[in-house]
Amino acid sequence: MRLTTKGRYAVTAMLDLALHQGQQRPVTLQDIAANQEISLSYLEQLFARLRQGGLVRGTRGPGGGYRLAKDANEISIAGIITAVDEKADLTRCGGKSDCQQGEECLTHELWAELSETIYQFLDNISLADLIQRPRVLEVAKRQSGKRESSMNEMPATQKVSFQEPPTSGAS
After folding, report:
1. Of 42 and 167, the one with more pLDDT
2. CB hemisphere CA count around 138 (13 angstroms)
3. How far apart (Å, rounded) are the C-alpha atoms in residues 10 and 36?
4. Cα angle at 153 between 158 and 15, to 5 degrees?
5. In the predicted model, is pLDDT for residue 165 greater than 90?
6. How many angstroms separate the Cα of 121 from the Cα of each of 22, 77, 115, 124, 164?
7. Which end of the chain is less packed: N or C, by CB atoms within 10 Å?
8. d(CA 57, CA 27)
9. Alpha-carbon span 10 to 153, nearest angstrom
10. pLDDT at residue 132 is higher than 60
11. Count of CB atoms situated within 10 Å of the CB of 92
12. Is 27 helix (H, G, I), strand (E, B) or coil?
């Protein structure tokens, strides 16, 4: 499986969304970008694909953002990766069986089986499974605390008053 940044970021963003699913308002991409340190423009591209894949629903306008389109237990990690056009394939030929001058290479079957095993492993893990893991909850709590403290550290405003320039006594 060639799991690139695209697949990793998609899973991370969806997990962040699942962790905040109970909130009254949808989760903004800006919130996910800040929490997970992922570029906002990259998240926009990923969420377009996740929306097309039926995994998220978007709400436009003030108070808008994203929610999961399905229950967290119905969204597998493999489903997320597949939605953003990643493939669970470790073969050199992309599963086409033409690795060596149009023929299968010596190890094609090995890599094809490993690819299938990895896909099945990830397909058996749902977002609901992940959000119940103690380590995931620890990290989410740390991120939440970090986010709240950074909001409290907003720059202080300073009152500035301007005085009228003195007028000359010449009439």
Report:
1. 42
2. 3
3. 11
4. 145
5. no
6. 27, 9, 10, 5, 73
7. C
8. 11
9. 30
10. yes
11. 14
12. strand
Secondary structure (DSSP) of 2-20: ---HHHHHHHHHHHHHHHT
Residue 93 near residue 99 (C-beta atoms within 8 A): yes
Contact 108, 102 (CB under 8 A): no
Helices 5-19 and 29-36 sit at what angle, rounded to 10 degrees?
Answer: 110
SS3 state at 28: coil
Separation between Cα atoms, residue 134 and residue 77, nearest integer Å: 18
CB 164 within 8 A of CB 43: no
Question: pLDDT tens-digit profile of 108-118?
Answer: 899 889 989 99
Query: Can you read off the two tokens belonging to residue 49?
Result: 């694909």
The answer, yes or no, to whether residue 148 has pLDDT greater than 80, is no
| Strand segments (E) across the chain | 56-59, 65-68
Q: How far apart (Å, rounded) are the C-alpha atoms in residues 71 and 83?
A: 16
Asked if residue 35 lies in contact with residue 71, where contact means CB atoms within 8 angstroms, the answer is: no
- Phi/psi class of residue 165: alpha, beta or left (left: φ > 0; alpha: ψ in -120 to 50)? beta
User: What is the average pLDDT across 61-81?
Assistant: 94
